[in-house]
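ARCHIVE CARD
SHELF: 3
SLOT: left
DATA:
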Amino acid sequence: MPATTALRRTVAVLAALPLLALAACGYGSQAEKDDGAKVAAGAEKTDGLDSVRIGYFGNVTHATALVGNQKGFFQKALGATEAKYATFNAGPSEIEALNSGSIDIGWIGPSPSINGYTKSGGKNLRIIGGSASGGVKLVVNPDKIKSLKDVKGKRIATPQLGNTQDVAFLNWIAEQGWKTDAQSGKGDVTVVRSDNKVTPDAYKSGSLDGAWVPEPTASKLVAEGGKVLLDESTLWPNKKFVITNIIVSQKFLTEHPKAVEAVLKASVDTNAWIKANPDEAKAAANKQLEKDTGKALPADVLDPAWKSIQLTDDPLAATLDAQAEHAVKAGLLDQPDLGGIYDLTLLNKVLKAKGKPTVDDAGLGRRP
C-alpha cells in the first residue's frame, strides 16, 4: 500500500460524520441468551474466561452470527465460558463498543472496519475472518427507470454519506462518466442519504426513484413494487465482495487467542451447517431476528434476501482494499495504510485442521 497520508478531514469531523460507516445510531440492545445453548456437562472454561461478548447486527447479512447464536454453535465451542451477545444497528456504535471493551468480537461491515482501523492509527482492531459476500442491489421504480442509463437525473438513496453502499454507488456513477459531488450528493444523479429504516417508506411516497442498498432493505423495496436493476455482485471478480467480516479488539486477541480461535471455529462450523441445512438455517436466522429486533421478516422479503447472500469464511481481503480505493477516488479519503488490518493466523489454523483451503490477506496482514 502507498505511504500513509493525512485524511482530508480532521479526526473531529470524522468522529461527527464517520467517513466509512453505516447509518448512525446508538448502542444496540443486549440480545437474549438462546435457551437452547446449554453448557455441556464437564465443559471447561476457555482461556479461563467467564464470558466472551459477541456483537452483531440484526439483519440477514449477519446470518452467521444470527444462526450461531440461535443454534448454540458459539456456546458449544466456548465450553463453560458463556457466550454473551449484543445487537447493533450501525457500525459506529459497534466500533465504539469494541473500543470501550463492551464487546470482544464483532460481526461488522467493511467500511466501519476500515474507519475504525484508520482512525485509531491501526491500534484498536483486527479483521480475523470473513462471514458474508453480496446482498447489495440497485432497486428502482420501474415506471421511472427502465435501464441503467435512465438512472441519470434521478434521485437514488444510499444509507449514509461515506458508508459501504454510498461509496460503491459513487464509484459506479463515476464509471458511467457522470459527475456527482460526493459531499452534497448533487449532480448528474442526486444521491439521497436515507436511513435504511425509512427508505422503503420514502420510496413508497415517491420521493425516491430508487436506492442502492443492502439486504433486507433491497427486498423490502421490491415488495413495494421496485425492480432490481443491478446486483452489485456482478461488478466484482467472481461476483464476490465482502459485506460482513469478523473483527476483534487487538487486546483481546493478544490476551485470549484460545477464545478467539473457539469463536472462529464456531463461525466456520455455523457456515458449514447453514450451507448443509439452508431452509432450517433461514428459519433459525429469522427466529433470532425476531428475538433481537422484535419482528421477524415476512417470506416475501426474507426469501430473496437470503438467496442473494453468500456465506464465506474468506474475508475477501482484496475487495476490502478495493472498497477503500473507491473511497479515495470519490474524494472522501486520502490513501489509507491498511497494512496490518488482517490477522488470519487463527482462522487458517482452524481451516487447515478441518481440511479446508486457507485464505489470503491480500498483503494486508499483521506486520512483525
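SLOT: right
DATA:
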Amino acid sequence: MKYYIIAGEASGDLHGSNLMKALLQKDPQADIRFWGGDLMKAQGGTLVKHYRDLAFMGFLEVAMNLRTILNNIKFCKEDIRNNKPDVLILIDYPGFNLRIARFAKELGIKVVYYISPQLWAWKEGRVEIIKKYVDEMMVILPFEEDFYKKHGVHSHFVGHPLLDAISSLKELSIEEFKKENGLNEKEIIALLPGSRKQEVEKMLEIMLSVRPHFKNYQFVIAGAPSLPKDFYQKYVDDNVHFVSNRTYDLLRCSKAALVTSGTATLETALLNIPEVVCYRGSKISYAIAKRLVKNINYISLVNLIMDREVVTELIQTDLNTKNLVEELHKIIEGEKRNQMLEDYRLLREKLGGKGASEKAAEVILSI
C-alpha cells in the first residue's frame, strides 16, 4: 500500500517514526512518502520535506512567512497528486494539514488523522472540516474521545504514543551518561527550552538566570535536532553543558527540569522527572491566543489530562527568576516533589498502557 504522512514538528516526527515502524511490521511492502524529520527518515521511505522548514511559531511569525507557507501547501498538493497514495496520514499540525485533508479527499484518497489538533482549546469550528474530509480520527488523550462524540464525530482512542517511545528505552547508567557527555559529578537540572530558534533564545535567558541559586547543581541544555550545535555554544560554560539528540537520556539522569510548554511537559512527566513548566511569547501573540483559547484552565498536557494542577505553570510575567527559583527549590526536595511523583503515577494509569502506534496502524490498515 502507498502511504503519505505529514508531520510538521519535532513531536510529530517522533510519533510518525513509531507509526511508520508499526506500519512496516504489518505491511512489509509499504511504500511510505513523508514530511517529517530525522526519526522518520531512519525508518526508511522517502523524505519530501523536513519539518525544520515548516515550523513557524506565533501569529506574527506565521504572518511574516505566509508566502513560504502557501508555497509549501501548493508543493504538497502537487506531490500528492503526482504520487497518488492510497491513504494520507496527518499528524497534528492543523493549519497546514486540514487544507491538505480537503484536497486529498476531493481526489478520492482516504484521509486518516492521527493525533488530534487541540480543537478543544481553540478553533472548535474546525471540527466541521474533520467531519467532511477525514475518514478516520485517532486520538491520544482520553478526554478527546468525548469531545468528538459531542460533535458527532466517531474517533478511536488508541492511547498515547509517548508510552511506546518511553517503554522501549534501554537501561541507562547516570555515571556513564555524564562521562560520555563531559559532565561533572554534580546532580543535573535539565533545561528544555523548545525547538525553534527564537523560542530557545528567549527561554534559555530566563532559565539560566537561576544559576546563582543552585551552585551545587550543573545545568544541561537539551539541544533541538532542528538547530545546529554551534547555536548553543554562547550559553555553555563550566557549569552549563549541552547535549544533542539525547533528551530522554538527559531527563532520566536529572534531578529536576525546567520545560517550555509543549509535548516535552508530558514526556518529562512520563519519565518521572519533577518539572516547572515555562512559557513566554510575544505580547501580541499571547494577547491574541488568550482571546482565542477557550474552556481550558492550563497550558501543559500534564495538567490538562489530570484536570488539575500537578505541575506549576509560569506564564508570561509570572515567568521570572524569583518564581523559577522558588518553584525549583520545591521540586528538588520536599513534599511537593513527592506529591508530583505520585501524581505522575496516576497520570500514567489514566493514559493506559503502551501499544498506541500498533493500534493506530491497525486502524489505518482496516480502511
